[in-house]
Amino acid sequence: MRSLKVAGLIAALVCRLTALEAAPDSENTKMRAIVIRAYGGPDVMKLENVARPEPAEDEVLIRVVAASMNPVDVAIRKGYFAKLVGGFPLIPGMDAAGVVEKVGNKVTKYKAGDPVFAFFTLEREGGYAEFVTAKEEQVAPKPKTASFAQAACAGAAGATAWEALVDTANLRAGQTVLIHGGSGGVGHLAIQIAKARGAKVFATASTANQEFLRQMGADVAIDYTRAKFEEVAKDVDVVLDTVGRDTLERSYGVVKRGGIIVSIVDEPKPAALEAHGIRGVTLRCTPKAGVLEELSKLMEAKKFTPVVSQSFQLADVVQAQSQIATGHTRGKIVLKITDEPVR
Prior knowledge:
Strands 3, 4, 5, 6, 7, 14 and 15 form a 7-stranded mixed sheet that branches. A 6-stranded parallel sheet has the order 10-9-8-11-12-13, sandwiched between helices. Strands 1-2 form a two-stranded antiparallel sheet. It is of the alpha/beta class. Strand 14, helix 11 and strand 15 form a beta-alpha-beta unit. The chain has 2 domains: 159 residues, Quinone Oxidoreductase, Chain A, domain 1; 125 residues, Rossmann fold (3-Layer(aba) Sandwich), CATH 3.40.50. The relative contact order is 0.15.
């Protein structure tokens, strides 16, 4: 009789455990994320517990260690790209780094446990979260020489710098480039890419960032508060404009005939381009695995290192975005989502 009771208890326990396994586990199906449910000021960003995403057949699910912050995040939060982004609720964040948690059945390049970094489109954001999904072509292996925070910063900003200088301007060894906003997120990475290509680099920044420009590899650091860049940089092959407005207007005359201006903020004027015999392009960068892989190689070779000037916890996202909104951030800012795995 006693053995029957024990057997009954065991059977009941097994049934209970089976039921628990079959039922949704709130701890495993939820995640912390910054959620926007309406456009507006910093206060629209709320830390919430939301459903953890599941990867589609061509996606990877990434457990996020660090997420990069970009000026475009502020613009998106304010509603400036409302026609391009997905609907509410919206999780911000265009790039992140972490560890692959799960892959779809059509993914061939990655498996669970792989350290990666990713760059998402405006329609597929979500880096400000403990988990995020990404298409396989939006992901690259994290180099061993970079921290997760550094790799997170290489996505959107690094790809923008690469596509501007390499894919668009075809910057080559022996050429000269003028990089406006050289101490910023895109600018400091563009300096390093230009030097890796063998170009001579002129870069502008404020007085406080002159030494930083030189540390990044700039051959000529220009303090825009004390000197006119057009009196220092002359007949350059390429201008990378991350500032716009008057800076762009004054840049036409420093480019040699046949050269190019690539702006990531404003539209070059066709009449001015024609008058100077130069080309002009406004760049809107999109994720490409090939570009991310090139950046990964540069990081592995220690020719390209994103500089993380400040790190914030996920709960301090308002403070972090307030800093990025000033437009005077040196290098990059990251959100620390989870602890960095031991390598």
